[in-house]
Fold this sequence. Notes:
single chain; alpha+beta; seven-stranded mixed β-sheet; six-stranded mixed β-sheet; 23 strands; 23% strand; globular
Amino acid sequence: MDARGGYGAAVTAEFVAAIDQGTTSSRCIVFDRAGEIVAVAQREHRQIFPRPGWVEHDAEEIWTNVEHVVREALASADIGTEMLAAVGITNQRETTVVWDRETGRPVANAIVWQDTRTGPLLRELTEAYDEERLRARTGLTPATYFAGPKLRWLLDNVDGLRERAERGEVLFGTMDSWLIWKLTGRHVTDVTNASRTMLMDLETLDWAPELLDALRVPAAVLPEIRSSAEVYGTAQGVLAGVPVASALGDQQAALFGQTCFQPGEAKCTYGTGSFLLLNTGASPVPSRHGLLTTVAYRIEGQPAVYALEGAIAVTGSLVQWLRDNLGLIRSAPEIETLARSVDDNGGCYFVPAFAGLFAPYWRADARGVIAGLTGYVTKGHIARAVLEAVAWQTREVVDAMAADAGGAPLTQLKVDGGMTANGLLMQFQSNVLDVPVVRPAITETTCLGAAYAAGLAVGFWPDLATLLAQWRKDAEWRPTMDSARREAEYGRWKKAVQRTLDWVD
């Protein structure tokens, strides 16, 4: 028995760490028992673009960065590993890496969730395996987004890899599996990440043999599927002796960090894109309105909790586009000042379907439009239309969720992510949803969710009620728009969306 008191026992260590392996950077955050941030370290990694539509990461570079940020965060907190009760992991979900079982070296660059090279494979898959059957089994729609087809592409295109995979010489995982393996030598994933592969059965929470056959994926490469909050093993190296005790895909981690533990509670994370998750309880709810059914989390020894998810491809990146491609602003925060220079959007609507539309449309043929332009429109109106596009896309996802969940209305939306600093956007979001929008005091909800799950697994926090009691509100926006104006503007937004469709033949 060490200072941590043993797994699940009274823990005397004072901190929990979380590693957030994201799309553009890796972070480590140390939290205390009150869920307050003690130290943060972050390091970006390269975005590799070998061809149009291809996006890759160097998994070795990411691991080196993770080691760096862990050391930096512990040094900043002035603590050693003996003061950590556990470490949790959250990650960019569908990004796919394959590595050598013996050497631990990746066989190729990781294929990132944004990568679109698997389009032809998906057409082949839907011919071999009915789309409705696929959706019923996995909760997912055929899209280049997911990990299973990326694994199949690597097996087909890296010389000798399929034969090595069938002999069990290589291992597959999303970034959670890669990091857990590097830390502990265990080849595991959790239910949230497995649910994003297109290979897991939502009901059994295990790999589905017929899906493996359809995608020609040998079972020997797959990790064991475990709960989101349980001890997977004890770390070596940079976190020597610390239990590795949680894994959650980034959006599920944010839901957990926002303490959305009851059915009907929802959160939206505003990042490069936006991701809205609604807790639907102990049974998966099939979507008929363009959403994904996914696992929200599973605590060891308890039933899985499910969610509906609406993934929006372009929100924060639209502000970056306005800055970098058009030069209308010099920094992202300037968009609020520019948008406030006008009273409304001047009749201008911006639908950012830069690479198609995600939820609730899933239309790869769509491309972005700016509609309603007249000589009256200024850069202020365009800035306002950019912010409003974020809110209208969220409204469409919320409407789809209400339809899928039996029409139960949302009572509030918890929000996190960088764009929640924009007060104009948050007020407009409240207006178009006609519900309060609430931002928590600790906005690093992704890391907090991973920390909370790891802490639960080792007894650092006793139960969900304790975590719920720690959640605190920082700001709240309430609707101020009358219903007639709301629905009229929504109707014009819908017309603008229709103009994006059928652009690519």
